[in-house]
Design goal:
Number of helices: 2
Helix content: 25-40%
Distance between the termini: 25 Å
Strand order of the largest sheet: 1-3-2
Order of helices and strands: EHEEH
Shape: globular
Strand content: 15-25%
Radius of gyration: 13 Å
Length: 76
């Protein structure tokens, strides 16, 4: 069995709260978000867990200060 799972779900990118809730629901089923593709989302299998997702709009995502801050919080 593969440790990767692919799901197709249409969620308007503007609906970030709804998308975060869906990702949290998936984590509760043992599927952890890895990346979004053009048509589907990739998840990694694991033990079900309570996970909080926080999405931000694209922009200065690679900004060194922001990355350092996220690492200091223990986020990946």
């Amino acid at each position: 069995m593969s440790d990767r799972v692919y799901r197709v779900k249409w969620i308007d990118p503007v609906e970030m709260d709804r998308f975060e809730s869906w990702l949290e629901h998936m984590a509760g089923k043992g599927l952890f978000f890895e990346r979004a593709g053009f048509w589907c989302y990739t998840f990694r299998r694991g033990a079900p867990a309570e996970v909080r997702y926080r999405l931000e709009t694209a922009g200065r995502l690679g900004d060194g200060e922001r990355l350092e801050y996220c690492r200091a919080l223990g986020w990946e």
